[in-house]
């Protein structure tokens, strides 16, 4: 339904009726704007001393009449129609300017690109009558450093070109210029964006990891954009010019998703979505989505749901007082809960229920650990950066078939298996969820019950992917998380995995550094030094524990004797 929007404050009833009548009119599809409609537009704009714009559908129907200020109009949020697969929106914008010598502004170009409009037309006025139409449209390839082209100005009564033929020809050019790739209707095609104040090298490392996260989530990566800034833009996080460049890139490549490496605030997500008309998610939401798809156990599903709800809660910012409930009775008259408040209350109620269920599951896990402790079976926990090879190592050591894949967070639910050491020593070895830099706090909080397994460990095996160029930074990330969890007092043995992928020189240099035990989790014959070293550490831990128990029992006997 057509409507009048924008700055209508202070307008007289007759002026509002004239705007409504303008909204009911229809353009000839082949014309950008008809002569009579251009005259009405000019008359109303001059009378109101404000810019007036029209959003016109390709069929000629006027979708919206926008009332602006003296020097600008603001296009409202538009429905996500007509933009799938990288197409133009199917709407053109025609608006007046009150300066006779004005032309298409930078803001007009921004709206044209970010909203994927078919055309942007600016109608100049002279003595209250239409003067010239200045038309600009997007082009598939840059010409002279510009992504748009301007037509020669013409009078609305002298339109020579067919608007529809021009738009269809442009869309065909965009399709021809788009790279050939298989189009899966159920698969997201994303442009990855990183906006950083750190060094270029750090940004590239973070982008490499984001690419792997996207691959793990089944997202097709079409392009990567890195922008370094002195400070992040408070509204868009990146510059407006770079934002326009990304939108034009998405149109050329057929992208439907923007994936940011930084965590975005609710207002930033809303601003970028409104100005790009693309789905926008950040790194945290991507990780949560990966976890949701990988969780198999009941506990894992509960943990992920709670983390997702906590992530979603602050992003419920849309108020809709029209959906308020009215209640009757003394003291209860007037607006009741808004829809926003109802949604928040339901989410908080669900989080409370999930907390209770997770506590029950945690109690069951604690009971299992207590039984294990009574048998005095030592526990080894595998920790490390995601995709370092923890699950593969567990499979090789215990001859198991736990799911292991060359992807980030391929294994989510904790798994325990029995392992017998060479010198007749039996232990429980546990695989836990992998860590990653900037791990979402809510996610770490949600996995508290799972991470409790680490507190019961007698030895931590820190699995490190030494074939990764950034492995030292990954070690720092894992050690920082272990320190935050107060696990840094548990004995930890570094396991330098994937040494088979190193050159002989790098392998020799690594062995001389004495940073840990070098292995390849795929080759069982490389694991004997690891088992011997782990058994040696465990025996020391158990002897120390036995001595402590003996000292405590002696102390207890002395206290009982003194009391006697």
Automatic annotation (TrEMBL):
Pfam families in the cross-refs: GTP-bdg_M, GTP-bdg_N, MMR_HSR1
Oligomer status and interactors: Monomer. Associates with the 50S ribosomal subunit.
GO molecular function, one term: GTP binding
Keywords from the UniProt entry: Coiled coil, Cytoplasm, GTP-binding, Magnesium, Metal-binding, Nucleotide-binding
Cross-referenced InterPro entries: G_HFLX_dom, GTP-bd, GTP-bd_M, GTPase_HflX, GTPase_HflX_N, GTPase_HflX_N_sf, P-loop_NTPase
Primary location class: cytoplasm
Coiled-coil ranges (or none): 337-364
GO CC annotation terms, alphabetical: cytoplasm
UniProt xrefs under HAMAP family: GTPase_HflX (MF_00900)
Function: GTPase that associates with the 50S ribosomal subunit and may have a role during protein synthesis or ribosome biogenesis.
Similarity annotation: Belongs to the TRAFAC class OBG-HflX-like GTPase superfamily. HflX GTPase family.
Residue ranges occupied by any Hflx-type G domain in the UniProt entry: 378-542
Protein's name in the database: GTPase HflX
Localization of this protein: Cytoplasm
UniProt superkingdom: Bacteria
CDD domains recorded: HflX (cd01878)
């Amino acid at each position: 339904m057509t409507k009048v929007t924008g700055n209508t404050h202070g307008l007289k009833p007759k002026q509002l009726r004239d705007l409504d009548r303008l909204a009911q009119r229809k353009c000839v599809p082949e014309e950008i704007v008809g002569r009579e409609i251009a005259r009405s537009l000019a008359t109303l704009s001059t009378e109101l001393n404000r810019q007036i714009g029209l959003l016109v559908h390709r069929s000629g129907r006027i979708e919206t009449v926008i009332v602006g200020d003296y020097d600008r109009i603001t296009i409202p949020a538009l429905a996500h129609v007509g933009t799938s697969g990288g197409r133009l929106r199917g709407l053109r914008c025609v608006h007046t300017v009150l300066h006779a010598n004005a032309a298409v502004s930078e803001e007009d170009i921004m709206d044209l690109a970010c909203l994927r409009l078919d055309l942007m037309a600016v109608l100049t006025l002279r003595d209250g009558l239409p003067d010239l139409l200045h038309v600009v449209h997007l082009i598939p390839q840059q010409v002279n450093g510009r992504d748009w082209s301007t037509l020669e100005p013409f009078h609305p009564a002298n339109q020579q070109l067919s608007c529809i033929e021009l738009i269809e020809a442009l869309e065909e050019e965009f399709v021809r210029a788009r790279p050939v790739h298989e189009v899966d209707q159920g698969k997201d095609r994303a442009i990855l964006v990183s906006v950083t104040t750190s060094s270029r090298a750090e940004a590239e490392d973070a982008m490499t990891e984001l690419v792997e996260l996207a691959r793990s989530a089944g997202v097709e990566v079409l392009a990567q954009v890195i922008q370094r800034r002195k400070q992040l833009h408070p509204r868009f996080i990146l510059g407006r010019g770079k934002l326009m460049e990304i939108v034009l890139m998405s149109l050329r490549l057929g992208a439907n998703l923007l994936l940011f490496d930084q965590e975005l605030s609710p207002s930033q997500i809303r601003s970028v979505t409104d100005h790009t008309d693309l789905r926008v998610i950040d790194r945290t939401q991507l990780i949560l989505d990966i976890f949701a798809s990988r969780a198999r156990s009941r506990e894992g599903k509960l943990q992920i749901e709670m983390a997702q709800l906590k992530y979603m809660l602050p992003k419920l910012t849309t108020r809709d007082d029209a959906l308020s409930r009215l209640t009757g009775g003394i003291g209860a008259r007037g607006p009741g809960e808004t829809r926003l408040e109802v949604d928040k209350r339901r989410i908080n109620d669900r989080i409370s229920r999930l907390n209770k269920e997770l506590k029950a599951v945690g109690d069951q896990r604690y009971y299992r650990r207590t039984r294990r402790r009574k048998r005095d079976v030592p526990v080894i926990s595998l920790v490390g950066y995601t995709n370092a090879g923890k699950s593969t190592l567990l499979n090789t050591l215990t001859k198991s078939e736990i799911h292991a894949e060359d992807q980030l967070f391929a294994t989510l639910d904790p798994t325990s298996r029995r392992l017998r050491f060479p010198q007749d020593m039996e232990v429980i070895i546990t695989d836990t969820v992998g860590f990653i830099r900037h791990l979402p706090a809510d996610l770490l909080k949600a996995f508290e019950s799972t991470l409790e397994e680490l507190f019961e460990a007698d030895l931590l095996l820190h699995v490190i992917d030494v074939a990764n160029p950034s492995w030292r930074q990954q070690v720092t990330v894992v050690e920082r998380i272990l320190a935050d969890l107060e696990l840094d007092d548990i004995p930890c043995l570094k396991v330098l995995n994937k040494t088979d992928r190193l050159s002989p020189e790098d392998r020799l240099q690594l062995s001389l550094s004495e940073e840990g035990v070098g292995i390849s989790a795929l080759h069982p014959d490389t694991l004997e030094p690891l088992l011997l070293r782990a058994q040696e550490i465990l025996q020391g831990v158990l002897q120390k524990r036995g001595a402590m128990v003996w000292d405590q029992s002696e102390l207890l006997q002395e206290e009982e004797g003194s009391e006697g």
